[in-house]
Amino acid sequence: MSHSHHHSHDHYQPDLKGRNLIISILLNILITVAQVIGGLISGSLSLLSDALHNFSDAMSLIVSYIANLLSKKEASDRKTFGYKRAEIIAAFVNAATLMIVAVILIKEAVERFFDPQEVASDLVIWLSLLGILANGFSVLLLKKDADSNMNMKSAYLHLLTDMMASVAVLIGGILMKIYQVYWVDAALTLAIALYLIYMGYDLLKDSTRVLMLFTPNTIQVEQIVEAIQKITSIKNVHHVHIWQLNEDEVHLEAHVDFNEDIRLSEFDNILGEIEEVAHHKFGINHVNIQPEFNKPDSKLVIVQD
């Protein structure tokens, strides 16, 4: 059995990432408190729904921050991979909370739609402006890391949807002030909820794929098997597993049948060729190969253990 690593490295500064998360957490707590008070005083369901969303975001950002800290901890004999999946778990939890909050908002919106309540629109307008400014600042802080990190993307999406929700609440406040159409409050709440589902679904699906050890969408198992089997001396590639440990590490595990009973030094040379194919053609940075010669096991590419 042999293995090799080709690790890619992120180019962000972890201390800056953590600092940005802390700033965003504090801003979300401030917005939540202000919107809860304002929502109760004004009677605005959309403002209260935005506050609920902001509260869930504050909790999600805390989860993201803890995961960011854990991901830096070293591996040990009890945790041989360290906490490399902490940020994937955080992304999954955050995406799931987006969906749960959305369902709660839909229920409240439907009830309010059939029983519109008068709303103090001035307060709604000013508090939505506060939400736009604070969340907009947080979105700018996290945008860079969101492009390369699933955990940060989940936090970024929470904040982006918050900002969009605040924009919707602002528009609703203006309409209620000018035209006194209070059903718009429930309609905006419903729109915010549907937007949460739209934004959260892909992230929930992607994080689930990683946690379930599914083969990444960008990789075709058959193509890798064909490429490796073209290497001289290799008879068969079978019992293949390909999965992501996290966003930076893709693992390949396989049994390789050889045409001849080769020496260990020859195997090392062939292993180098396999690693070259896996890394440069398919972006796999961890290769674990079990060499075999005339072993009477299943030669199927995919074998359920």
What does this 3D model show about the protein?
- With 305 residues, the protein is of the alpha+beta class.
- Helix content is 64%, strand content 10%.
- The protein has helices at residues 14-42, 45-70, 86-113, 121-146, 150-179, 183-211, 221-229, 264-282, and strands at 2-5, 234-244, 250-258, 286-292.
- Strands 1-4-3-2 form a 4-stranded mixed sheet, with helices on one face.
- α1 packs antiparallel against α4 and α3 runs antiparallel to α6 (183-211).
Task: Please write out the topology.
Layout: E1 2-5, H1 14-42, H2 45-70, H3 86-113, H4 121-146, H5 150-179, H6 183-211, H7 221-229, E2 234-244, E3 250-258, H8 264-282, E4 286-292
Parallel strand pairs: 3-4
Antiparallel strand pairs: 1-4, 2-3
Beta percentage is 5-15%
Could you tell me the radius of gyration in angstroms?
A: 25 Å
Structural class by sheet pairing and helices: alpha+beta
What is the β-strand count? 4
Widest sheet: strand ordering? 1-4-3-2
Q: Helical residue percent? A: 55-70%
Overall average pLDDT = 86
Give the N-terminus to C-terminus distance in angstroms.
18 Å
Q: Helical region count?
A: 8
**Biggest β-sheet description:** 4 strands, mixed
Question: Uncertain segments of ≥5 residues (pLDDT<50)?
Answer: 7-14
Task: Tell me the overall shape.
Answer: elongated
| Order of secondary-structure elements | EHHHHHHHEEHE
Keywords, please?
305 residues, alpha+beta, 8 helices, 4 strands
